[in-house]
Structures are given as structure tokens and as C-alpha cells.
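Action item from last week, closing it out:
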Amino acid sequence: MYLALARKYRPQRFSDLIGQPHVVKTLQNAVEMDKLYPALIFSGMKGVGKTSTARILAKALNCEQGPSREPCNECRFCLEITADQSPDYIEIDGASNNGVEEVRRLRETVKYKPMQNRYRVVVIDEVHMLSNSAWNALLKTVEEPPEHTYFIMATTDFHKIPATIVSRCQHLEFRRIPFEVIARLLREICKREKIQVSDYAVFLIARSSEGSLRDAKKVLDQAIALSNGDVRDEDVVDILGVIEEDLFIRLTESVLQRRRKDIILSVQELVERGADLRFFYAEYLKFLRDLIVVHSMEDPGSLHNLNPENLTRIREILADVKEEELLRYFQAAKEMEMTVRHTENPRIILEYLFLKLSYFPDLVAIEEAIRAMNTHASIGETSVHSVIAEMPAGNADNDFPGVNKAEPQAEALDISAETIRAWWIEDLERENPRLASHIRAASVECDGDSVSVVVDGGNGHVKSVLEENLDALERSLAKRYRRRLPIRVAVGRDTRAEVEKEMRSDRNIKNLAEQIRAQMISVDKVQGGRDAQDAEHQSDDTDGSEHGSGGTGKKERP
């Protein structure tokens, strides 16, 4: 029977383990010093060597020349454990033996001394699948195991193990195996098997494994079978269902060079090929992320998933592209995620997305626009402050900050008092809500060169607060108009006292107070909504006895 590569090239010594130096060093030192914890938890993603490490540790403990840092793999005990024929090496699956009865049988077994080995080693794979009752039955045994027994629990979901178990075990976390380590090992396997394989095929297999060596060996096995010998690139592409990186590169080049016809043809190529367009979109997001990494770092090393053979070409395409522009492309593409996922016509959405991205090179950063306007101002064509004053505080498209190079901006500087007041309230509410409330209660006047804040005569304390914060008001205003305008604070009429006096003399209110035996104690201004505004308009059409009832609220005490 054919022996799968994952089993044929399974690590048999600690030195064969790759990508887990911290685990190897910990276990070797513990065995050598006779300080190995009786219950261990091996956690990590699939295919990184958890059960292989457990088997090697069992051999190191029971080797005729041990316990030692490395098993000899030649003595009877090592060979029996390697062949899974040792009566004292128990390896069970937690998914199919997750009941309390199985755990009770296991507890009865470990009570007795090993039949022939120095130690009994119990390995429970996928231990997180045990039931609650099974965990409870195992708890005491794990805490105080017999002196001749070691428990090793392997899991891919460490967070599912009860805290009571974790506190009684030593936890060793297995890391994801680096991409370059997997690629190097695949080349060694192909060399031993006398199989020809290209660097691109190895790159695709290693990248698809996402850190799992077992998955990489499985795909290589399948590629060898499909190719009937030497591994071909197209066979690996078919097995993995990946989209060639060259298509991503060509599509990105078409976007940057505004070749919109080629964009449509590239999407058409995907449709004719029968590719999953939603999967293509997800992969293109990863490709954009890798472009940002390569563009941002001189030596990105293994931080990207791009084919090393394509890096030179990619750098040439991105030579004239700024890093912030790539971030803009990524943000625009990422925001289409939910649309692409739920649309019934992903082709249309993809065409729209890439056509939209192709217009980004026509945008210019706001800094460049300001520099250009300053240049025009120096030759008397326009005033940069006038142009900036007409710019909106926020771009209509917040995702793609920039202005059109071809459209000159207007020149007039028209500062509205209401606009200033609204801007102050909006800006100050984030940093100084108290100051914003004072501005909301005041009125603003502007003559184009200076700004006046007029407070009600009955709120004299507000004037001192505003005067103490003139600098904050000027800085807030400068955010919008790019210049400091002089600001003064003035006190207007005491409208509150006038309104209160008028309402106290109102005939209708007096009659109401007499009927309900109430007394008016204060008059407060109400920030009216639609009803208050309607009442205020209505009050303009009524006689003096009803004047002011729309904008003022009354507190009465019985």
C-alpha cells in the first residue's frame, strides 16, 4: 500500500521537527533534568507537529539509552512506538472517545504499571471534544497521575479546554510553520522522491498550506498523482483552484495605466474560465495588501505571499505610485466587500470597482492642490486663502481625498455668521462641549474681517468664559477658513428678563395661575423643534396677550 508523504516523512527525532524550536528546547531540557511535567497540553493549528512531538517524547522517555534528549530509533521500545505497536503508548481520539465511560476505562488502565516500558504515555488527540462529564472524570487523574504515567493532550481549540484542566497542566503552544521553511522541505522531499517541480509550484503549495506542513505534503501528493510524475504548474493551479498571480498583476497594471478596455477583458476572462468572482475578489484584497507590504519595505522577507519571481516586475509597476495611493485603492476595494458578497451580479460590481479604481490616478492630493494654488497666487492669478475659504470643510468623497486638476476654484471669500456658529458648535462639541453650549446660547455676527459673539444680557458669566477661550475659538475657526479672524465678545439686551416680565404680566397666564392656584417661579428658553417653530410663527399672528408663548416654557409651582 502506498504510504502518504505526510506519514513517510513524519519527524522521528526532535531534530527533525521544524518551526517549533521553543517546544523542542523545553521538552529536551525537561527530560534531561528529570523535570518533565506529568500533564502537558499541546495546542496549535492543524499539521504543525503536535502528535508527532508527543510520539517523539514518548520514545525519548522509554528509549533503552534514555531518558535522553533524543531517541535512538533503533531499540525495541522506540521501534514499537514508531510502529504504534507499544502496549504502553496509548493514543486515542478525543472526538470518538469523549464519553465518561471511556475516561473511566482509561483511569483504570493507568492505575497499573506499564507492561514493559519505563513509562506509560497517554496521548489524547483533539481533547477539546471531550464532554463535560468526561472532563470531570479526568480532572483528578490529570492533577495526580500515577508516577509512571504521562498525559499529553493535543488540541486545535485551546480555549475550549476547561480552566480547571489548564491550571493542572503545562501548556506548550505550537506555532504556524513559516512559509519558507515549508517550501524548503517540499523541495527536499521532491529531491528524495526524484520528482521535478518548479519554484512556482512549490510557492503555490506552500502558500496554500497557510502554515500547515501536513496540508502541504497532502497537496504535493495529489499533484504528483495528477501529473503522473513530475509536477506541472498548471496541475497545481487546478488542484488548488487558485487564480494565477499574473492576472492580478495585469489587472493592477491596467488600473494604474487607465486601460479600461483591458479591465473589462480581464473580468471577461475570469467569467469565461468559470472562476468564482467572489473568491477572486477576496484574493485580490490579499494581493493589494501584499502590494502595500512590498512597497512599504525594502526587504519584506516573508511578510508577503507574492511569488518572489514576480517581485521585480511588481516593483517596476509601482515605481510611480505613492504608498497613500495604494492605501486608497485598498480602502475603496475593501468597502465593496458586503456588496460583492451579497450581489446577484458580481461581474457587474467587479467591473464597476476596477473602472472606479482606474480614475484614481487622475486625483491629486490636497497638499499638491494647495501648493499649486500657492504658485498661482504668487503670479497674481488668484489668492490661495480665497480659494481655500471656498473649499468645503470635508470632501464629498471622504474615502478619496483630492480635487480635480482641471477645475479651478472660485475666488470670493464669503463668511456667513450662521455658518461660523454652526461650525463652532460642531467642532467644539468634540473637544469642549461646555464652550459649544455657550456658543449655542449666543448669537454670532460677522462683517467679513472680524467676528462678534453676542451673549444675552442676563448671562454675564458667559461673557467671561468666552473671553477666556478666545484662542480656542480662533483656532477652531482657522481649521475651516485657514486664517485667524479677530473675535470679540459683546453683551446684548437682557431678553430673558424682558420675556419674563412680559409673561408675568400676560393676562392669560394670570388667569391660569388663579384657576390652578399656581405661582410662576421661572421662565426658561426651549430649543424648539417643529412644534415650537409652528407656535412661534403662530404667535406672530396673535395679539399681544399670546406673544412669546411659542419660544418660551413656563415652570409653575402649585
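Closing note: Residues 63 and 72 are 7 Å apart (CA to CA).
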